[in-house]
């Protein structure tokens, strides 16, 4: 159950934002064992004054097209699977909507399975 939040500068067209979400979902389906229909994603657009980043942090040259992706998941996957997810996200976002790999920033947040409620006030993953 990934919960995905995407932050980017304001001004990109709806088709661009949709392509980001579609590519992220595809990468998660392909590499992260995400089932069909398990799609919970938001996009937040920010004015320049509310979008700050290290343009050269760790020697990676980022542009104004930087996209910050935060994915919250249950802590059930090995490091190799996480690395595969990061690579696939960068590959797919390069294809569509045409981002540079340097402009794909990913933060994976892991939580315990009991920290999810998918509705009805229930913790569906608690057995």
Automatic annotation (TrEMBL):
It holds the Pfam family Tautomerase_2. InterPro entries: Tauto_MSAD (IPR037479), Tautomerase/MIF_sf (IPR014347). This is Tautomerase family protein.
């Amino acid at each position: 159950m990934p919960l995905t939040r995407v932050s980017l500068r304001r001004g990109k067209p709806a088709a661009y934002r949709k392509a980001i979400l579609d590519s992220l979902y595809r990468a998660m389906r392909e590499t992260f064992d995400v089932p069909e229909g398990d799609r919970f994603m938001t996009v937040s657009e920010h004015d320049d004054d509310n979008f700050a980043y290290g343009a050269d942090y760790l020697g990676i040259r980022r542009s104004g097209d930087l996209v910050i992706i935060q994915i919250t998941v249950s802590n059930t996957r090995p490091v190799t699977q996480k690395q595969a997810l990061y690579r696939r996200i960068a590959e797919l976002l390069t294809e569509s909507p045409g981002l540079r790999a340097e402009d794909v920033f990913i933060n994976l947040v892991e939580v315990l399975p009991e920290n999810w409620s998918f509705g009805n006030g229930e913790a569906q993953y608690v057995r």
